[in-house]
Amino acid sequence: MSENFLWGSATASYQCEGAWDEGGRVPSLWDIYLHKNNLEHGDNASNHYHCYKEDIRMMKEGGHKSYRFSLSWPRIIKNKEGEINPEGVKFYHNIIDECLKNGIEPFVTIFHWDLPQYWEDEGGWTKREVCDAYVDFAKVCFQEFGQKVKYWTTFNEPRYYVFSGYLIGNYPPGLNDIPKTIEASFYMMLANAKTVQLFKRLGINGKIGIVHSYSPVYGVDNSLETKIAMRKADNYFNNWILDTAIIGEPPMDMLATLNKKYDLSYMKEEDFNIIRENTVDFIGLNYYARALIKPYTSGESIFRINNEGKKAKGTSKVVVKGWFEQVFDNPNSQYNEWDMEIFPEGLHEGIMRAYKKYRIPIYITENGTAFYEDVAGVDSVNDQGRIHFLNSHINAILQAIEDGAEVLGYYVWSTMDLYSWKNGYEKRYGLIGVDFENNYERKPKASYYWYKKVCETNGDIIERSNF
Ligand code: BGP
Asked: Residue 287 forms beta bridges with which residues?
């Protein structure tokens, strides 16, 4: 195990910062969508904007070697004309400086879903103009922070973001529109390649990657039908991000299928050249669960995700007409309250598959599990369930490293309790509890102290087992 392995934890700007209308920040699409629909929002989130020093100090005391966080576009760029907000830029200099002062390596995500509303008003990610504006934003970030930050990622989970916003419709802009899903996916992947190109042209002294919501695909049986469904599911879940970003070529069988039904003429030859020539240096994989797949049977497509919790088993349902169905009620599986399967083997297998196929360094940029926890009523949450979950997943990573994969870092999701998108604040992931009702008081959980030992012993205290 390399001494340079980056042990850390992760957050995202909208989910932890709060201060939604402070420091010259303009609204993101999440502010507008959540306010308009009267839903729980991130106006104050975990108050990290005001508590970042305390939070980074706790990371240091918790043995962290790295902190993965994102830059908020609406905090940094004020309008479509690209006017920079100096206060926003200063905030991130402060965060980065504080990390460096504490010996913590900043691991920066340029976009973790908080698109400025002024770009959403123009059609958001379905527009080429927004793709180009993103690259301009990235340029500002490189110029401002490029001397201090060595690890960059262009996007957090483009697949999850695009599918949730444009296909499932549970995230803003709340659509169920296949052509727009394809457009937004394409422009994000083009923006990724253009940003990698810019990064190299500017000669930034560092590495650049992309973060993917990785769902290794498994089949319910070994039949040919299931194998065909698995290939389609793998394209849907993984390949169109990973192949495109790493090999420089989207899965051609998927493009050919889509091309028969939809107008893809906005995808230009020059775009594919840029994608081909500008691939990432490393890949960030966020792992929560595998995707268990069975062949498509009948009916229309269904995209439903459990944002309610309380083991609403059967709430989640994904059927992609003519392609595959996803299984959420396997009798032999264990699920958390939000229908998320607990399956550490999938992380080992997933890393091995990705490494064999792509042969580039891997960081596990998110991994964790959610619980309902009473933070207000206790001094510290005794979250043995989380410790067990993290232990089994880190074990999977250690095994993958022993089996030859190049995994260079691991980030627990999340550093502290934070806003969980449509699930609100009840769905807690943090190593550090946040008492949202009581001045955002920080209360490190048992997992925080346990993870400190993991970081400090470079993984030696992990209880090992074989799959
Ligand atoms: C990932 C996102 C994170 C985070 C996490 C947990 O998809 O990158 O931002 O939210 O999942 O998901 P959720 O909060 O929906 O439970």
From this structure: 214
pLDDT in tens, 74-118: 999 999 999 999 999 999 999 999 999 999 999 999 999 999 999
Residues with CB under 6 A from ligand 1: 12, 15, 156-157, 160, 213, 286, 366, 370, 413, 420-421, 423, 427
- Report if residue 266 sits inside a domain: yes
Tens of pLDDT, residues 36-46: 999 999 999 99
Contacts of 222 (CB under 8 A, 6+ apart): none
* Measured torsion, CA atoms of residues 336, 339, 340, 346, in degrees rounded to the nearest 10: 110
Within a 13 Å sphere around the CA of 361, how many CA atoms are in the beta-carbon half? 14
Q: How far is CA 287 from CA 95, 291, 319, in A?
A: 26, 11, 21
- Closest residue by Cα to residue 393 from 408, 412, 374, 375: 412
- How far away, in angstroms, is 30 Cα from ligand 1 center? 14
Judge whether 235 lies within some domain: no
Report yes or no: 206 and 150 within 8 Å, Cβ to Cβ.
yes
Q: Tell me if 203 is assigned to some domain.
A: yes
- What is the mean pLDDT, run by run of 10 residues, along the chain of 467 residues? 95 98 98 97 98 98 98 98 98 98 98 98 98 98 98 97 93 95 98 98 98 98 97 95 97 94 97 98 98 94 80 76 93 90 97 98 98 94 98 98 98 98 94 97 98 98 93
Spell 280-289 as b/e; 16+ CB within 10 A means b. Answer: bbbbbbbbbb
- The CATH code of the domain that includes 440 is 3.20.20.80
Domains held by the chain: number: 1
Does residue 62 form part of some domain?
yes
Which domain does 398 fall in, by range? 6-216+245-288+344-456
Report the residue among 369, 421, 428 best suited for mutation to probe ligand 1: largest number of ligand atoms under 8 A from its CB. Answer: 421
Give the separation between CA 403 and CA 38, rounded to whole angstroms.
49
> Beta 151-156 vs 207-214: how paired, if at all?
parallel
- For ligand 1, the distance from its centroid to the CA atom of residue 256, given in whole angstroms, is 31
Q: What is the pTM of this model?
A: 0.97
Specify whether the CB–CB gap between 196 and 208 falls below 8 A.
Answer: yes
Tell which residue, 278, 290, 288, has the closest CA to residue 249: 278
